[in-house]
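User: Can you recover a sequence for this backbone? Please restate the input before giving your answer.

Assistant: Of course. Working from this structure:
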């Protein structure tokens, strides 16, 4: 019996894609959080200069 059968390939690909999606989501969350921090910092800086 071959290890590279249809079922095993599908399981592997599903696991791989799940891990890739998790990493992509984490990166998007970090970027969004950074945008929020930058926006707040700029707002605070602008309010102090007034």
């Amino acid at each position: 019996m071959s290890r590279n059968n249809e079922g095993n390939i599908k399981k592997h690909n599903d696991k791989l894609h799940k891990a890739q999606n998790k990493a992509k989501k984490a990166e998007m969350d970090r970027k969004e959080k950074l945008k929020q921090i930058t926006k707040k910092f700029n707002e605070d800086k602008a309010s102090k200069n007034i």
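That completes the design. Helices lie at 6-49.
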